[in-house]
């Protein structure tokens, strides 16, 4: 390996005491390897900015250290700003919708190269301080290499719900902006995924019987 | 007579609800002649029918909620069969009047007219099985008209959560709701109990119950309990699918797999492996909800919450994160009338009631549809 030109962090996967050791070992090993593989794929096959993989030694993974707030932290700060400066809300509001578009683009690119993230929450997205592509995804532990329409739809559904449950203060069209940019990125493929998303949403709704 | 309510009153301050509005201002209900507010709750959404009476005492520094009585009857289906709506409804209809009488007698042993002390009737509006829900709703409407007091429709899941918060004194936990019909990871934000993750097909209790039928376990006292006992004898871990899709989980594929394996493997080992796999999935999603919301307390509610192994796994996870877990308490784990009364009294005190025209039931009623007006936004 050449001389490192970045800070490095180690993603340690601790053994989960609550899990049966065999199950735990199996999950930990496969998630570590798959995360590394998918990060490599992101870098080689697309322009998505993800942390570089430095070294793989299951259960640990050494990754490039990126600085910046998570989108969750970022949005919560923005929210405070919006409350404080009511007069200038139009400006911050458009910033927030810009962010939505960037997220849509990012997820679209990811799905285009056949990756589903598996855990698209705002804690797993970062707004980078360096002004290159400005935001990034992390934590690919549950990701999969697949072009499956179902998995892509579930990916979007998780994101939609994560936004609803952690950021109820966001403008209502935030997710629509994500989908809009996502569709542009995915071109003609977006239609089937969005149709499936509709079905996935219905599934959750139907699934409410007795307790 | 056997007591059905043996818990001390719970402090109303510990759970940090909004201050209760002055009664005269909302004109919604009348406290009784002693200044207390007492409500009666009716639950019958699944195979249990229960009546609970809860009292609110507005002492200035020791305001509290107290369960005065909480009797219940369970319909146990024959081995190899689940509980069916028709039989379950008949069971509830046969028992509910006697249960109301028993509840009143236990709560007010020396009163000739206990109904004059009650301010409202709370009932389960949903979710649940249609016919059993309706049986209880008919009883609720009758009592409301007879005693001329308001009705309050309650979401069953919110009943579990509110009783859980109160009984454990935890103001804002992440809730894992696991029962025969529901599997949800819930986190509160802005006056709603938001569903973080849930099952996309069958509920965990349904999965366990159906496997119990495949291997001929009895429904008495409950199929889940009998699986837990079998699992204790299991030694071999048999790999099963581990299906976590985003925040959601899926159990139907695991059930199919384990049903196939039942032809060749020992049932003890299968029960053991099934529990290990299902519970690991639930604990993992709960952990992620905690990480995302930054909360440290977990509350397990619903019938499957009685499972010792699930409690043990959850505790291990939560302790590693430096938090605490509240699991298994008869007041909020197993369906009962007092939990409906508890969620109902909150709604009532903050100005809500249900008119007779709106006192219908619904099989589908999501947790996040209720606005928790008693909690700080």
Automatic annotation (TrEMBL), chain A:
Keyword terms of this UniProt record: ATP-binding, Kinase, Nucleotide-binding, Serine/threonine-protein kinase, Transferase, tRNA processing
Top-level taxon of the source organism: Eukaryota
Enzyme Commission designation: 2.7.11.1
Reaction equations catalysed: L-threonyl-[protein] + ATP = O-phospho-L-threonyl-[protein] + ADP + H(+); L-seryl-[protein] + ATP = O-phospho-L-seryl-[protein] + ADP + H(+)
Any GO MF annotation of the entry: ATP binding
One Gene Ontology term, aspect cellular component: cytosol
Protein name: non-specific serine/threonine protein kinase
Lineage of the species this protein comes from: Eukaryota, Sar, Stramenopiles, Ochrophyta, Bacillariophyta
Automatic annotation (TrEMBL), chain B:
Assigned EC number: 2.3.1.234
Record keywords, A-Z: Acyltransferase, Cytoplasm, Metal-binding, Nucleus, Transferase, tRNA processing
Listed Pfam families: TsaD (PF00814)
All copies of domain Gcp-like, residue ranges: 70-341
Any one Gene Ontology cellular component term annotated for this protein: EKC/KEOPS complex
Cofactor, how bound (note): Binds 1 divalent metal cation per subunit.
Reaction(s) this enzyme catalyzes, per UniProt: L-threonylcarbamoyladenylate + adenosine(37) in tRNA = N(6)-L-threonylcarbamoyladenosine(37) in tRNA + AMP + H(+)
Top-level taxon of origin: Eukaryota
UniProt similarity note: Belongs to the KAE1 / TsaD family.
Protein name from the UniProt record: N(6)-L-threonylcarbamoyladenine synthase
Source taxonomy: Eukaryota, Sar, Stramenopiles, Ochrophyta, Bacillariophyta
